[in-house]
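Structure ticket #2291
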Amino acid sequence: MARRKRPAKSEGDVKLIARNRKARHNFELLERFEAGLVLLGSEVKSLRAGRCNLGDAYADIRDGEIWLRNLHISPYEQAGRMNHDPLRPRKLLMHRREIRRLASKVAEKGLTLIPVSLYFKKGKVKCELALAKGKKVYDKRAAAADEDVKKKMRQAMRGGLRRRDD
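Resolution: structure written out below.
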């Protein structure tokens, strides 16, 4: 009996786990980077079930290493007593050269590193980091107003904007 071959995974074979939706609202994203994560087996199982929260997570550079903090990965039910701590700091894997460049930017300009998304790529868990600058309240309002104007312009171009006769 012949075995069926599995289709080869292409370069674009990416499965999204979680996305930080508030990142674009709270921060101005300047540059994006991809990093690998050092995880335990129960954490990977929990991520495959989609049980994580990126809301309060941020990356911290210490001693030439990048650590992801406040990333909540729920405990895996079948792991029993060998389960992981949901909020433990997790090491990110990047080239030393990139880490040094990021460290200088974060220290010099007062920028921060935030995770934008978490995904599987070729069976490995990857984290998309963004070099970000925090927005003030008035910046958020201005961005929301600009988005509203763009939305109305798109509707008008489609002919979807209707007049009301009140």
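Closing remark: The chain has a mean pLDDT of 82.
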